[in-house]
């Protein structure tokens, strides 16, 4: 083919497939001129033509993008953000949480309403674990019975706590009791704790090497001797203390039932010595008494004669020793007293 007035026509230029694809995708070709800025729109951060060349440099996020393509991308981003917010709102409603307003920034978790205490580390005020002065303010016999089932706690210097449930006691009634250290009403520096307020410890030494622990009760010179415990906590430490302090048979390992089955064994296992004399069991930080765990059954109690007071005349036979029937931790079992207790129970019904 020829054109008028001259030589042949030049062939049409070949289409660039890469440019065609970019155009179909809504993106400008490498040689396309960007559109002029919209009237009234700020030049900073947007596209603006630059002198000295047909193309302009755009420092903003929509560099070199036509208005139509930028609008489509903005709509897609807005739709995606909306779907994300809807998904988050749905998840919050599902979890029972309240969705914060999209107009307010989220500055972190809400402020705490105040210090909270776990129920596992606090006791109800109406049922404190540690027994106070009012518990000890009763006569020796009912106090000796009330001790059974309660928990004696000893805290060592390193923080270790030793625990044992009381299973055996003896009551001493004061001046009238021929077996009591306060018989006849006599007071000495040794037995002064027996005449102090209820709950005061009276610790004395026997045979020049062993200790026994008593707790004063209501009435001058009256007290309760703690004879045996059921070990509950710190058994290995108890075993070490007993092995260190006991005399003889040092090479034989002690069984659990031998740790606290006697007044002197109890003091050895709990590291009780003369330094505890005249301390207040209701307030002391190294030794105290705790109420038996909730739900514990009231123990069956046996009343028997006291041990080791053969020179006390008729008082040696009075049933002023109390222990939990059937407990393997008791120091001395009195079968005759148990039969008498059973017979009295049968008659009651």
Care to describe what's here?
There is one protein chain. The protein has helices at 17-24, 67-94, 133-136, 140-147, 235-245, 263-269, 335-348, and strands at residues 151-155, 161-172, 201-206, 210-216, 223-233, 287-290, 301-304, 321-324. With 349 residues, it is α+β, with helices and mostly antiparallel strands. Strands 1, 2, 3, 4, 5, 6, 7 and 8 form an eight-stranded antiparallel β-sheet that branches. A hairpin with a 3-residue loop joins strand 3 (201-206) and strand 4.
How is this structure best summarized?
With 349 residues, the protein is an alpha+beta fold. 23% of the residues lie in helices and 15% in strands. Strands 1, 2, 3, 4, 5, 6, 7 and 8 form an 8-stranded antiparallel sheet that branches.
Features:
349 residues; alpha+beta; eight-stranded antiparallel β-sheet; disordered N terminus
What string, H for helix and E for strand, traces the elements in order? HHHHEEEEEHHEEEH
* End-to-end gap: 135 Å
The DSSP helix count reads: 7
Q: What structural class should be given to the helix and strand makeup?
A: alpha+beta
Low-pLDDT runs: 1-9, 22-64, 96-127
- Provide the β-strand percentage band: 15-25%
Largest sheet: 8 strands, antiparallel
What's the alpha carbon Rg, rounded to whole Å? 45 Å
Helix content: 10-25%
In total, the number of strands is: 8
Average pLDDT over all residues = 77
The global form is elongated
């Amino acid at each position: 083919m020829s054109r008028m007035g001259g030589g042949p026509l030049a062939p049409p230029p070949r289409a660039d497939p890469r440019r065609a694809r970019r155009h179909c995708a809504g993106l400008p070709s490498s040689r396309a001129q960007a559109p002029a800025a919209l009237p009234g729109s700020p030049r900073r951060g947007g596209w603006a033509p630059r002198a000295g060349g047909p193309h302009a440099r755009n420092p903003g996020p929509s560099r070199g993008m036509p208005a139509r393509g930028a609008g489509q991308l903005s709509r897609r981003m807005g739709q995606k953000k909306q779907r994300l917010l809807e998904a988050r709102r749905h998840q919050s409603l599902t979890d029972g949480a309240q969705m914060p307003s999209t107009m307010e920034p989220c500055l972190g978790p809400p402020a705490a309403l105040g210090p909270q205490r776990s129920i596992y580390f606090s006791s109800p005020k109406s049922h404190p674990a540690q027994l106070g002065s009012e518990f000890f303010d009763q006569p020796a016999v009912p106090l000796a019975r009330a001790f059974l089932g309660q928990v004696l706690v000893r805290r060592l210097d390193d923080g270790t706590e030793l625990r044992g449930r009381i299973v055996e006691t003896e009551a001493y009634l004061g001046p009238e009791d021929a077996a009591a250290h306060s018989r006849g009403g006599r007071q000495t520096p040794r037995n002064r704790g027996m005449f102090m307020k209820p709950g005061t410890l009276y610790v004395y030494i026997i045979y020049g090497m062993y200790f026994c622990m008593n707790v004063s009760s209501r009435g001058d010179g009256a007290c309760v001797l703690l004879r045996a415990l059921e070990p509950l906590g710190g058994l290995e430490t108890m075993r070490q203390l007993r092995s260190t302090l006991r005399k003889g048979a040092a090479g034989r390992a002690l069984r659990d039932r031998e740790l606290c089955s006697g007044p002197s064994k109890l003091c050895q296992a709990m590291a009780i010595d003369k330094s505890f004399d005249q301390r207040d069991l209701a307030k002391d930080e190294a030794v105290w008494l705790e109420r038996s765990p909730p739900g514990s059954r009231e123990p069956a109690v046996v009343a028997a004669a006291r041990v080791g007071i053969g020179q006390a005349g008729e008082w040696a036979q009075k049933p002023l020793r109390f222990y939990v029937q059937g407990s393997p931790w008791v120091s001395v079992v009195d079968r005759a007293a148990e039969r008498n207790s059973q017979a009295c129970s049968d008659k009651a019904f």
